[in-house]
Write a structure and sequence with these properties.
2 strands; two-stranded antiparallel sheet; Recoverin, domain 1; 86 residues; mainly alpha
């Protein structure tokens, strides 16, 4: 997480940097390219990809991405303030 936080300063920037095909989702292949230098085993990578794929459709959408790591990496971007109405 720290490495990702150091690399990107915004959720949207992080997502679109991993969406190499620019089709609105992160494929397993694209994410594998990013994580290839991290020394993960295939099992570790599969676990990680499965964790990111919240809706289990085989690809990581922006919504999946923000639900998975958005609040951890960029808490200010995921805060929503409610105003009480009388």
């Amino acid at each position: 997480m720290e490495k990702m936080k150091f690399t990107w300063k915004r959720i949207r920037k992080a997502f679109y940097s991993l969406d190499l095909d620019k089709n609105g989702y992160i494929s397993k292949e694209n994410m594998q390219l990013y994580f290839s230098s991290w020394g993960l085993t295939p099992e570790q990578f599969d676990w990680l990809y499965d964790k990111f794929d919240q809706d289990k459709d085989g690809k990581i959408s922006y919504n999946d991405f923000t639900q998975t790591i958005g609040s951890e990496l960029f808490p200010a971007e995921t805060l929503y303030f409610r105003q009480a109405k009388p």
